[in-house]
Automatic annotation (TrEMBL):
<keyword id="KW-0813">Transport</keyword>
<dbReference type="GO" id="GO:0016887">
    <property type="term" value="F:ATP hydrolysis activity"/>
</dbReference>
<dbReference type="GO" id="GO:0005524">
    <property type="term" value="F:ATP binding"/>
</dbReference>
<keyword id="KW-0067">ATP-binding</keyword>
<dbReference type="InterPro" id="IPR003593">
    <property type="entry name" value="AAA+_ATPase"/>
</dbReference>
<keyword id="KW-0547">Nucleotide-binding</keyword>
<dbReference type="InterPro" id="IPR003439">
    <property type="entry name" value="ABC_transporter-like_ATP-bd"/>
</dbReference>
<comment type="similarity">
    <text>Belongs to the ABC transporter superfamily.</text>
</comment>
<dbReference type="InterPro" id="IPR027417">
    <property type="entry name" value="P-loop_NTPase"/>
</dbReference>
<dbReference type="GO" id="GO:0015807">
    <property type="term" value="P:L-amino acid transport"/>
</dbReference>
<feature type="domain" description="ABC transporter">
    <location>
        <begin position="2"/>
        <end position="235"/>
    </location>
</feature>
<keyword id="KW-0029">Amino-acid transport</keyword>
<protein>
    <submittedName>
        <fullName>ABC transporter ATP-binding protein</fullName>
    </submittedName>
</protein>
<dbReference type="Pfam" id="PF00005">
    <property type="entry name" value="ABC_tran"/>
</dbReference>
<dbReference type="GO" id="GO:0015658">
    <property type="term" value="F:branched-chain amino acid transmembrane transporter activity"/>
</dbReference>
<dbReference type="InterPro" id="IPR052156">
    <property type="entry name" value="BCAA_Transport_ATP-bd_LivF"/>
</dbReference>
Length: 246
């Protein structure tokens, strides 16, 4: 469980996060939505240690993480899937996966066991192991990026706009890979511009506006709220969503 308590943070020109209080349930998918500039990415940045809050606390399973460096946050079990383009194109899939295990490189047995577990959940790691990452399809690359983030066995994975710029087919891969990640027991905290996509995928939804949490509720309840439709859905292009109705 992640608990944000009255978190304030900014970039020097005043606070962007204006006292965020939020509980992120363990082993669930939570999606944060909200208008541009609401502070969604900033919320992920304070958790990953890239930005230090000016006030408030963040607890991960009861332990404070708000004063840790990014490397310490990663070691505490919070990993981020980078935006697409995060693989080394001229390295093989296998080598990209091994780079994901850099932190545990000295524990060979553990690393091998983990790679085997992930290959079961994401078979492309095995079937394309010796191909260069650049030779994979966009969807396959996304799968490897997701799997790579899991090599060190994080308890929490952060996704910042995972469908940005993707075609509908690759969005579907992101949808499935996020579910697979969650089925492995990972807590997923994601930010998504595509509100329907994010809330269909998530168990819990959070709406942010002007640096604060406006609502936090089960995702299907948020999807059904008429004021949500008025706030966001007019802007979402229907045709670019996987599964027809997203
Ligand atoms: N590195 C930065 N330096 C200065 N200001 C920043 C920086 N990053 C973000 N901001 C400002 O902080 C505010 C919130 O940005 P943030 O990226 O968290 O919003 P967001 O809700 O993720 O928006 P979007 O949906 O547009 O990505 C914005 O006003 C933005 O201009």
């Amino acid at each position: 469980m992640i608990e944000f308590e009255n978190v304030r943070a900014g970039y020097g020109g005043g606070d962007v996060l204006q006292g965020v209080t939020l509980t992120v349930e363990r082993a669930a998918i939570t999606c944060v939505v909200g208008p541009n500039g609401a502070g969604k990415s900033t919320l992920l940045r304070v958790l990953s240690g890239l930005l230090r809050p000016s006030a408030g606390t963040i607890l991960l399973d009861g332990k404070p993480v708000h004063a840790l460096s990014p490397a310490e946050v990663l070691a505490a079990g919070v990993a981020q899937v980078p935006q697409q383009g995060g693989l080394f194109g001229n390295l093989t899939v296998r080598d990209n996966m091994l780079l994901g295990g850099y932190l545990i490189r000295s524990e060979r047995g553990r690393l091998k066991k983990r790679l085997d577990e992930l290959a079961e959940a994401f078979p492309v790691i095995t079937t394309r192991a010796h191909d260069k990452a650049a030779d994979l399809s966009g969807g396959q690359r996304r799968i490897v990026e997701f799997a790579r983030a899991l090599v060190t066995n994080p308890s929490v994975v952060l996704l910042d706009e995972p469908t940005l710029g993707l075609d509908p087919k690759t969005c579907e891969v992101v949808f499935e890979s996020t579910q697979t990640m969650n089925e492995l027991g990972v807590t997923v905290l994601m930010v998504e511009q595509n509100v329907r996509f994010g809330l269909k995928l998530a168990h819990h939804g959070v709406v942010m506006e002007r640096g604060q949490v406006l609502f936090a509720a089960p995702a299907d309840e948020l999807l059904a709220r008429p004021d949500m439709a008025a706030l966001f859905f007019g802007a979402a292009p229907e045709t670019s969503h996987p599964e027809g109705g997203l």
